[in-house]
Amino acid sequence: MSGPQKRSIKVAGHRTSTSLEPDFWQALQEIAQAQNTSMAELIEAVDSARGKTNLSSALRCFILNHYRF
Asked: What domain count does the chain have?
């Protein structure tokens, strides 16, 4: 298993970066495709609902919950 990969993304109109392991990036891509949306739109939706949790943690929890339910 590889370590986290940092990617630059645009969220809510501004550039930011977040780090996830490659398996999580792949899962996000698969979820976006299944929902017929872009990964950027999916990340924005998670970002807008995350509260005070950091984005990387929010994305990991989103992915976990997606596959659990």
From this structure: 1
What span, in angstroms and rounded, lies between the C-alpha atoms of 55 and 40? 13
> Which tens digits make up the pLDDT trace of 8-35?
998 888 899 999 999 999 999 999 999 9
Answer whether 7's CB lies under 8 Å from 17's CB.
yes
Q: Any residues with CB less than 8 A from the CB of 10 and at least 6 apart, and which?
A: 16, 40
H or E element in which residue 30 lies: helix 22-34
Domain hosting residue 10, numbered range: 5-68
- Whether 56 and 20 have beta carbons less than 8 Å apart is answered as yes
Q: Tell me the angle at which helices 39-49 and 22-34 cross, rounded to the nearest 10 degrees.
A: 100
